[in-house]
Amino acid sequence: MSEAIRLLAQEKGLSEDSLLHVLVDALASAYKRRPGAADEVVVEVDAQTMDFTFTAYDLDEDGNWVNERDDTPKREELGRIAAQTFRQVMSQRIREVERDRKFEEYANREGDIVTGIIQRTDSRYTLLDLGRVEALLPQAEQVPYERPAAGDRAKAYIVEVRKTIKGPQIVVSRTHPGLIKRLFELEVPEIADGIVEIKACAREPGHRTKIAVSSNDHNVDPVGACVGARGGRVRMVVNEMRGEKIDIIQYSDDLPEFVEKALQPAKVSQVNISDDRTQADVIVPDHMLSLAIGREGQNARLAARLTGVRVDIRSETQVAEGVPPHGHSLDPDVEYAEGQWVGNTETGEMEWHSTDGTVLSESDWLAQQAAANRAEAEAPAQPPPELVVEPPAEPVVEPPAEPEPPAEPEPPAESEPPVEPMVDVPGEPAAEPTGEPAEQSEPPAGAQAPRSDG
């Protein structure tokens, strides 16, 4: 019997003591299904000889245990029903112990990295097989433009571990800035040993990440340690993040110098910090303006999140022309993240600085994200929109056009007056016809009219 317990414990990955407790509970449940069983029973087992003792008790009116007695049954006295109960309870308790053990294994690993194999993916989440358990990668925690395929291996950051009736539910993320930090800890021994620290991290998942590092040893170059020989260390992180660009800069307590380094690879001419140390007016050469701002303002935006101040960038020509600062890093047409991770110089821990001024520790941020994920998972599904079918439009029948009235006949054109014949005057040349009636000429004075005969 002891050998069977040992083999079963080895198969299930459980300890022999926990399996013995399961066996005791199963025997107690089977005893209560026995006809004439006592109200309560306590089962004891000898781990060496595997001998069982059943101590029975009755309950009085006040619920007290009374009438203690030995009621150890023989094997043939348990019966078929008790045997079935024993098998069912045994299987159920073993599953419960396995779930509890898996939960305890991952409950203390929030903020750690796990490697899994992608099982399946859909529009809501992706499942990662971690070996003995599965991890849930929600759509909101996936990097844009990444297309995971079944069978691919991927590293993810554990955001939350939930305890459910089906076992532990592990929620992981590929967009969390902590993933970059953990990947560098795996690749850079100086970070794992505490010689090099990641002071701040600003990330736009899938596009670009800027991290600020410092060294606790003057003989160790923090940037060189993270880059590695011929870029080997940082290349491993870039490959794991599917080609996401990573800029590594050296942290500085001097804010103008820190802002200048945060805008690399652009060269900066001058940095002016406001009195309240919340805004930086940066002046760059004309040919460096577009590089300092970056594509769609990305470089300036990441620099602002990394340093914790607003960054306004102007060229030298714009300064000479009197152009006021206008905040390239805060373009209203660009969608920004909800905050940034900044290292606490006193405690050395990473803190989340949200855009509304709230500062959260890493544990508080994880709890906040866990609550948001639970609310999203418990939210009722939206019903599909109702299909509205519009009736077909009635044809428009136009009335027949009225016939046009007949056109009135045009009046006849006025006839020109007849042309009178011209009378030739003797002794004068005949006048050419002009189309106009000629006036009849009178005889000259003293001339006598011809006299007719007769």
Task: Briefly say what this structure is.
The protein has helices at about 1-10, 15-30, 75-105, 175-185, 190, 220-225, 230-240, 255-260, 290-295, 300-305, 315-320, 360-380; strands at about 40-45, 50-60, 65-70, 115-120, 125-130, 135-140, 155-165, 165-175, 195-205, 210-215, 245-250, 270-275, 280-285, 310-315, 340-345, 350-355, 360. With about 450 residues, the chain is an alpha+beta fold.
Which features does this protein show?
454 residues, alpha+beta, N Utilization Substance Protein A, Chain:P, domain 4, OB fold (Dihydrolipoamide Acetyltransferase, E2P), GMP Synthetase, Chain A, domain 3, 4 domains, six-stranded mixed beta sheet, 12 helices, 17 strands, elongated, disordered C terminus
How are the secondary structure elements laid out?
Blueprint: H1 2-12, H2 16-32, E1 40-45, E2 52-59, E3 65-70, H3 75-107, E4 113-121, E5 125-129, E6 134-138, E7 153-164, E8 167-173, H4 177-187, H5 189-192, E9 196-204, E10 208-215, H6 222-227, H7 232-240, E11 245-250, H8 255-262, E12 270-273, E13 279-284, H9 289-293, H10 298-307, E14 310-315, H11 316-320, E15 339-343, E16 350-354, E17 359-361, H12 362-378
Parallel strand pairs: 6-8, 10-11, 13-14
Antiparallel strand pairs: 1-2, 2-3, 4-5, 4-7, 5-6, 7-8, 9-10, 9-15, 12-13, 15-16, 16-17
Helix pairs in contact: 2-3, 4-7, 8-10
